[in-house]
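Feature request disguised as a bug report, sorry. It would help if multi-protein outputs had a clear separator. Right now it looks like this:
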Amino acid sequence: MQLISLEDVQAAADRVREAVIRTPLLPARWGDPQRPLWIKAENLQPIGAFKIRGAFNAVGNLSESERARGVVAYSSGNHAQAVAYVAAAFGIPAHIVMPQETPHVKVQATRDHGAQVVLCGAGEREKVAGEVLEQTGGVLIPPFDHPDVIAGQGTIGLEIADDLPDVQNVLIPVSGGGLASGIGTAIRARCPNAKVFGVEPELAADTAESLRRGERVDWSIDDRNRTIADGLRSQPSALTFAHLQRLLDGVITVSENEIRAAVRELAVKAHLVSEPSGAVGLAAYRQSSIPPGPTVMVLSGGNIEPSALADIVNG
């Protein structure tokens, strides 16, 4: 299987440079002195999450005739918003398939960017997206199972390497695996001494089990939907799993209480809004298994219902 390269990520960086924010690497001065912590604040992107990088790279790499057909995507939220935002920027139609259980704030934000949203039942995203493709003749922009999407997410790794070249640990939320695949590719090439860890909820720990077994395992939708981290309920594809097998030093799993505590800590101490999926890196950092040395957690997104954030912070 053909994996993406550093050159692919560098080409993506050139393609998206004018369209995305080069997010800051913020020092968390309350962190462990033996493991200085830095926060890569992707919640500050225009759509509130890292997904804008992969979407811009994928759509930007289409031909004009392909873009004219419009785009189709399926997503639990952040990729949906990203594709909708990018489609609006290019002036092309977008049809987005989203599960009915997606937080309202993410559905409304996708509609606000001008996309047509199609709601579907749990586990039906890909099937319904296929039907929409047939109806519209659009081009599919998947949330992670695409080299251009993976390379776009990898631009985060280039920025981490530029801003903190002596980084020793990088903590990345993992679900479908596109983010960890892209960042891992860049970090392995630019900071070869760093360790790259995926982080996922205990209630959706299919990647950790898959890596232990050496093959992808299937967790049911009902099992994965138990976690509060709604953005981490997908499973790796064959493409992303091949990347993760090569690039990750391990996967750290975190509990629901640890995720909530991390959301609260980011809000109170860093003054940063994080959705549960975006806070898992901090939850992993709080475990004793992280080696000493400068550590970066990727705060992947901040799209959370205000009421849910209030419940977590006040809880």
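(second protein starts here, but nothing in the output says so)
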Amino acid sequence: MTADHETTLLEAAAFRRLVHHLMHERPDVQNIDLMILAGFCRNCLSDWYREAAEARGIAMTKDEAREAIYGMPFAEWKAKHQHEATPEQLAAFDAAQRAHPKAGAP
């Protein structure tokens, strides 16, 4: 096994653990809070997943990518776990956007 292949396996394992943590251990953490603090959220992960698939010639829709990350249809996840953003969260998100303009929307 090459060092590059081993690195890929380690990165894949770390990614799976991150996804599991966000989906199963901390579903209470809202995407907007992730965006405020880290500049990415679960939706970003699904976008990156889809982009990686497309870079390898694998067609994938936004909904398919989100289901791969969320482990269920996105609408179902939202109904179970996502709350309406508070005015405070929206203000903090706007401030984070100004401080770090490359961050995306939740």
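Even a blank line would do. Unrelated, but nice: The chain has a mean pLDDT of 93.
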